[in-house]
Amino acid sequence: AWSAPPPPPPPPPVRDPNCDDPDVEQAALAAVQYVNSNHRHGYKYTLNQIDKVRVYQRRPLGEVYVLEMDLLETTCHVLDPTPLKNCIVRQVIEHAVEGDCDVSVLKLDNQFVVSNAKCESSPDSAEDVRKVCPNCALLVPLNDTKVLHAVDAALAAFNAQNHSSYFKLLEISRAQIAPLQSSVYVEFVVVPTDCAPKDMADPAACNLLADQYGFCKATLTEKDGGEDVAASCTVFGAAPGPQPDGAGSTVGPTVAAGPTEAARPVVATGPPVVAGPARPPVF
Amino acid sequence: GVPGPGLGVPGPGLAAPAIPLCPGRIRYFKV
User: ipTM more than 0.95?
Assistant: First the structure.
């Protein structure tokens, strides 16, 4: 008598592949992309290590990768269009920030789709930073009064440079104070508005221009009873208009200029504020 | 010349020594 061959044994419901397995890495990279595209503040993260992985069979088709992974903060803001592969990882001496993520990724038809992700970020310990750099500045809360003052001073100085637009603060992204507390380092995001800086009377009446961002770094240093502020901003997006010096705001370096009268209250002494190069439009 | 218990090649039904598969490689540095 003829009988059908026995059906193949069902695949095991669970397997534990190598954390460095190419499929596991692909699932992790899909999860990193998902995380970066789903937070609107702070910086992009990049994959540092896959801690654990377990793969479950999904009925009727596919597999679910459940991962634990470590990420590291980069220097690219999430609104910065720079591709992640070109972003630099924050080093320990900059007080690195780590992200711990639990994610689930569905693999179906060789495509990886993230179904959920939960992440927590935490800075490296101050002790770890001091081990390699005793005098390096450490992260401080973004609402610290010294931080707020440094950002106000830097933005005022930047706006005093006769840009074609008045820039508004979008967010403070990072702040560090050195152990001696004589200088405050801040990173923040600004957005150009439809107001011209010279005619700007009421900042509240100025509207933000869409899809244009400036990423600023500034250091405010207390000096001889006054303050020095040095700031540079890289602006991405369409040109709001020509610069007073005749150079387009999207080409070439913006000319470094000394503080204007409006900047004097916040730029007491020291070197002029320097505006960084504006890059070509990317949006 | 006869190996004692626990030595030599695992017999039938015995698993080979487990190789740690995870965590994976560190790409930058450990925080």
Answer: no
